[in-house]
Amino acid sequence: MINTNNWTYCCYTNDELKALITFGMSPESIENMDYYCTVLKNNQDLKFQKKFDSLADSINYINQKYENKWSFTNLTVNKSSSGCSSCVAH
Questions:
Q1: Is the model's pLDDT at 90 over the cut of 70?
Q2: pTM above threshold 0.85
């Protein structure tokens, strides 16, 4: 389950999609952080994005929508011991 301690490095995945929480700021309100439930295809192509005003709301949404349907993935766990795919950024 994604929570306030792991949201920056955990996500839900299926065969070709990844659902994660991202963040940003609106040009109209740079004082407040926006949170997004983002679904990517092949780690780069945006398929879906929903904006939230709070981290708690984005966590609730992503867990309700994906927790029981997709695999939970911790991106800090290396999948191989060498090469680019072992980098936790990918």
A1: no
A2: no
Q: For residue 58, give the DSSP letter.
A: H
Domain with 62, as residue range(s), is 10-71
pLDDT at 75: 93
As for how many domains the chain has, the answer is 1
Report if residue 51 sits inside a domain.
Answer: yes
Residue 34 lies in a domain: yes
Contact 20, 11 (CB under 8 A): yes
Q: Which residues contact 58 (CB under 8 A, 6 or more apart)?
A: 7, 21, 35, 36, 37, 52
pLDDT surpasses 70 at 38:
yes
Helix, coil or strand: residue 53: coil
